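Thread: "does anyone have the structure for this chain?"

Original post by V.I.:
We have the sequence but no experimental structure in hand. Need at least a predicted one for the grant figures.
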Amino acid sequence: MAVARTILPSFLAEAAPHCVFGRRSFVVMPAIILHSLSSASRRREPARCKFAGLAVCLQSRSLRSARRREKERVYLSRSGGSSANMNARMPKASWSRRYDRAPRRPLSASRITTQLPGLPTIISLFSGAGGLDLGFKDAGFSIAVALDSSEAAIRTHKRNFPDTNSAVADLEFLKAAGVVSYVEKHVPRETPIGVIGGPPCQGFSRANTQSAADDPRNAYPALYIEIIRRLQRAYAVEFIVFENVLGIRDKKHASTYQMLVTRLDETGFDVTEDELCALDFGVPQNRRRIVIRGLRKGCGYESFPPRKRQGKQTVGEAIGILKPPVFFARNLDPDSFPEHPNHWTMQPKSPRFVTPDEATEDGRSFKRLQWDEASPTIAFGHREIHVHPSGRRRLSIFEAMRLQGFPDRFVLEGNLSEQVEQVSNAVPPPLARSIARAIRRALGAK
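Reply from O.Q.:
Generated one for you, tokens below.
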């Protein structure tokens, strides 16, 4: 790091702290590079470089040769023999199996991207399985802490975000002080952070016909605000993101929603309110949600709307080519499922699955999807999983995940009911990624 900072202009040193300079070999973050190697480089001293513009990575052949020689050395030390007969003794096809003795870690969402330097560290409240977190991760943010009361959701989070401190926590029980105490164990004080989350929405949901203004779950927005205020005492909270259902703005919940917006403003954030539809962000689902973004006041941040993007628009595009799923039974092995470990669903016991063309929709419990249309909102209750377009069964968890925009590398943990809950509560990752990129642009617009 010290070497890089003495060689690079300051703006590039900040943008590329992982640069490596060495003998006839260097890797440099974005730049059209004019470089010269001095005689000092042949004495294992850093190569001096001049930079113009932005963006390329260079790596000399000598570094690749050194790696190849090291592989040969390891192989020869294990098997005996000389490099002259190595190729005969070890065919190329078997090289990786012979050299990589340890089993490879399963692909996980957090291994796909690297945190961009200078971005605030993320604290995720009410994280669920991590749909919102995955969007921020893909946009270059680091997820330091994730808290949720669901044990199955946190197991999912740990699997897909192994570098995050994910913990089962009842935030209502912990209160703001308990949350801050946990964060302080994993994030140094005064670190710039961003707080994201979607508190439980059942109390505000229009699908909940019994919802009322005095539902105990409606106190979560106030708790969210209090946690942010306590975090501000120890950290520089640069931004917040709050996601919830449209019903939070309905007349009977108007006072709660207004309290949320007003207190965020009083807490020191410039607040932007958006109603966003997942279909506008490459997700084949008509899912509309309220997203509140708050940027720290007095920092010159300029708010940008999330950019819409092209993507899958219909159910057929998302799940049309998948093999049939496994039906629920005890003692199933997810690794044996076709397509994906979450490609399973309920047994089709209803007579309506036998004669699907004669069946009629029955509200939320028998909503049949159409191949050439977007899916309605993926938000399932007990035995309310949408019906597959064929009409002969319900959607599998994996199919619901695809309709939510989850990448195939993402895997949900838990039993079938727990997976239904996780996929229903998740923020579609492509939508989350667009929100995160809008935040990222705003933070750079000082």
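V.I.: this helps a lot. Residues 2-59 form one domain.
O.Q.: and The longest strand covers residues 236-245.
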